[in-house]
Specification:
Pfam families: GGACT. This protein is α+β, with helices and mostly antiparallel strands. The protein is built from 2 helices and 7 strands.
């Protein structure tokens, strides 16, 4: 099983059903030393506004989110869902859990 940290879209029940065909159960956690910044992504019907985690120069900055336990197959589905504007990396959360996260590419 894999751990994935979501600070945005993958927390949506509608998106979870679309991507994984099920609802995920997660635990609140925090990514320290990162901040969110605005990101515009061109999609089928125009430009959409999102945000992306990016390393911060301030170690007290933090991004709140939820860590989910998912299968390797579900991780591959998340990779397909996320835009090329993001890359998946492993990080250690405030709780000590090592998880995958999508950050700025």
């Amino acid at each position: 099983m894999e751990q994935i940290f979501s600070y945005g879209t993958l927390q949506s029940k509608e998106i979870q059903m679309q991507v994984f065909n099920k609802l995920l159960t997660g635990t609140p956690d925090q990514l320290t030393g990162y901040k969110l910044k605005d990101l515009q992504i061109e999609e089928e019907f125009g430009i959409e506004d999102y945000f992306v985690a990016t390393p911060s120069e301030n170690p007290s900055d933090a991004v709140d989110g939820i860590v989910y336990t998912i299968s390797s197959a579900d991780l591959a589905k998340a990779d397909q869902f996320e835009s090329n504007a993001y890359k998946r990396v492993q990080i250690t959360l405030k709780s000590g859990v090592v998880a995958w996260i999508y950050i700025e590419n």
